[in-house]
Amino acid sequence: MTETFSNVYDDADRARAYAELEFPGTYYLAFRDIPALLRKHVRGTRALDFGCGTGRSTRFLRDLAFEAVGVDVSELMLEQARGRDPQGDYRLVADGTLAPFGTGTLDLVLAAFTFDNIPTDREKTSALRELRRLLVTPGGRLLAVVSSPAIYCHEWASFSTRDYPDNRAARDGDAVRIVMLDVPDRRPVIDVLCSDTRYRELFEAAGLRVVDAVRPLATGAEPVQWVSETRIPPWTLYVLGAA
Ligand SMILES: C[S@@+](CC[C@H](N)C(=O)[O-])C[C@H]1O[C@@H](n2cnc3c(N)ncnc32)[C@H](O)[C@@H]1O
């Protein structure tokens, strides 16, 4: 199932559609537990939003009183972020070049869904190493919000995978497809599968340790027509620190 991977978000239509998203349906569960996790694990307010896309995760951090800079590899996504939030600080980074942020300068790096789109283990490890370098020591934290492998094999309030049965046979590093139901653009997003076991290997290889890990489930009390979300966690949130 290996195929050449290109960033599906570097696309004007996709960027426009993504810019309309806030935190509907299944996305709500990815962000619900973040404020409590940050209160528990992060001291200080200097933050980087790595893979900020159209800026909703950067604005989320700012609303929690972080001084957040957003970076992304897609200028098309950044244009949308700047258009929505002209006061925000959104910067283009070529893969892996975060040198302008110095070393040991950040209390928090958030990577919300970014690693779903970084294709190879080598690139993931290199990005993780670079993010670890940015964290203050001791105490700096990287919060990686990633898609659980199960998200690609079930139906959800915000996603459908029923047209992609090949997802079920996918292994670490394989492309998987998922349709976002909250936006008009129904072309599948192509992500790269990465299991919990593989993520933990990559974190270790990058000199990071898992400080906390959360797999959010819906309670059923939310005003959302859940599909799988009360039984199967769609996301994993890893809080990481330097090993
Ligand atoms: C699913 S979007 C998430 C955007 C945002 N974090 C949010 O929660 O709305 C993933 C973003 O990661 C970006 N991305 C992919 N690879 C990246 C890399 N190596 N460095 C920085 N950004 C990257 C993509 O361009 C895309 O905008």
Overall number of strands:
10
Question: How many whole angstroms does the radius of gyration measure?
Answer: 17 Å
Q: Termini distance?
A: 34 Å
Mean pLDDT: 96
Rough outline: globular
Structural summary, described in words:
- The strands form two sheets. Strands 3-2-1-4-5-10-9 form a seven-stranded mixed β-sheet, with helices on both faces.
- The model has no long low-confidence stretch (mean pLDDT 96).
- With 243 residues, it is of the alpha/beta class.
- The protein has a single domain, classed as Rossmann fold (3-Layer(aba) Sandwich).
- α6 links the parallel β4 and β5.
- 27% of the residues lie in helices and 22% in strands.
- S-adenosylmethionine (SAM) binds next to α4.
SSE blueprint and pairings:
Layout: H1 12-19, H2 25-32, H3 34-41, E1 46-50, H4 56-63, E2 67-72, H5 75-84, E3 90-92, E4 108-112, H6 121-134, E5 141-147, E6 159-160, E7 175-180, E8 189-192, H7 196-205, E9 208-214, E10 235-242
Parallel strand pairs: 1-2, 1-4, 2-3, 4-5
Antiparallel strand pairs: 5-10, 6-7, 7-8, 9-10
Helix pairs in contact: 1-5
Bound molecules: S-adenosylmethionine.
S-adenosylmethionine (SAM) binds next to α4.
